[in-house]
Design brief:
Elements (H helix, E strand, L loop, with lengths): L5 H26 L1 H7 L25 H6 L5 H10 L5 H21 L11 H17 L2 E19 L3 E17 L5 E4 L5 E12 L5 E8 L1
Antiparallel strand pairs: 1-2, 2-3, 2-4, 4-5
Length: 220
Amino acid sequence: MLIDLFFIVLAVFLVIKLKTILGEEYDDLEKDESFRKQKVKNIDAEIVTPKPTHHNVQIPQDTSPEEKNIIAPDAIAALHQLQQINPIFTATNILQASEEVFLAINKAYTTKNIDAINAFIQPELAKKFLHTIDKLNTAKHTPYSLIVRMINKKINSIKINESSNDIEVIFNSERINYTLDEKGNLVLGNKDSIIEVTEIMTFSQNKQTFEWKLSKIETQ
């Protein structure tokens, strides 16, 4: 049974392990009224709709309206192939699980601790995280990345290969990124500026073990 499909694992693991972790950040934002008043005027802009990048793609007859909105047209056929293996592979399930990982990754970076995400990221990616954390610790710097609003999320591509399957998900969010030194001085970013960030996350399934793990993160 493919019970270790990443969104099934995350549905159990993340709800238990990450509910408290992810709640802390948003509780802090809710309590900080001055933060709210200062920033809310900057986030009332229209939700950004990415420009379409796919043309003349034949959409299968059984594509639901929901899928058309949250998945790139040329990824739909591959999604249906995955659904033949296991019907739980829906665009909604994939996006929900991916967003949990997205939030967990952000939390791991700001806390400089990957224990909560180590089980569902590939070893090479874990090494990169640890290298970044070591650099921050050596410099005695603390990063902050406050997610103000999720603008858009979408399955960008699904590739079915001989040795692995890959799902690429794009997240557009508004956030405040900055880094402080040990004395609380600003060394990078801006505490008063909301920026738009695009992150592309790739989840890969090893066809021998059937495990899904986060394999790549790109920031634009």
